[in-house]
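Justification of computing resources. Each target in the renewal requires a structure prediction run like the one illustrated here; the chain below, 418 residues long, is used simply to show the kind of job we budget for.
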Amino acid sequence: MKLLTKINRNYLRYGIYVFLVADLIIISVMSQIEKLDTDRELRYGAIEVSKVIAKHGHFPEIPPTYSVNIIDTNISVSGFFKDTIMYDPEDQNMEEFREYQFSEKINGKNYHIVHRHLAESFWELFVDITPVISIFLGSIFLVLMYYNKYMSESLWKDFRRNMITLKTYSFTSKEKLNLLHTDIDEFDDLNQVLIKMSDRLGKDYQSSKEFSANAAHELQTPLAVIRNKCEALFSKDELPEDTIQSIREIFVSTDRLSGITKALLLLAKIDHGQFNENEKICLKKIITEKLNFYQEIIEDKNIKINLTSIEDCSLFMDKRLAILWIQNIIINAIKHSPENKKMDITLNKSELSISNFGEQAIKNPELIFNRFYKENDGKGSTGIGLAIVKKITDHYQMKISYSFKDFKHTFTFQFPIC
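Resulting structure tokens:
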């Protein structure tokens, strides 16, 4: 959710509460003002009635507005106001009235004078005034909202441009991060922090990249020397059997260490974004080529390959990574597939799945893509092949799922766009 949208939603939510409170306060104040005005008019009207009586000697009864009665001279009614309910002949209904009554001696007679006025209740005022207040406050809210939107677009314009720069910036570029000056202290302070951080991370990235490349290169030289020395020792005659076995173990370990070094270098290169030469890759073609390449191993284990391609699929990938990905998942399936069994490969436009038979499910499927993790202590595995697969699929935003059903291990790779 965008910041401006969230601010407007908060304005709307809290604005409703403010509106209700303001509405009640305004109506209460207006009710009191109207009541005071009514009382003033009632008192003035009652006094005018007494003046008419004094001048003309009588005043006509006008129910329910005016009521004039002659009472005992000993009774004195001081002026007071009260609310009452009376029948209104005009509306033919019982209505609320506000009245003022008092007594006054005029021309030797004691008159009881009552002046009434139709009163408007609080809820009637609420119904009458609330639409007006709603239109007024709603107009203010809309004006503020559009003004806030206009100001926000103006204030956040440079910030958004800097965000686009940050999204497209790469540590592989030799150019330094350059952000626009915004004339807003908080944004400029953030820009300075980001520039310093990018410089520091850029240096760390280059150092890590150089270290991994140099380490892999320097390790390959002594490993090649050890391998050559072992091959030279193998050519010598009359070596004891235990010596030959030791040399063989050294050679195998050296070869395995060389493979691990190359795999770790590959993972580092993927992390550093050195495989970005994307092109349209036909997965079915790569799968077929790899199956043909490992045909001898497949025949030795008497594995029957069932390749089903419902719809051919092409992905935009670095060809080297695509080949490595397919190669590793096929090798993994062949290696763990029992002899004389079937291996299924299914490819369509949305996913690739590969299945092989097995006696039991993987104990810790959430760990199998971790580096150097192995379900067993098999010496033929480095525990890094599936880690490379995971790194490649993450790089291209694929989703991996594992299942075990009917004694079959199934790895499924879902493509984001195919």
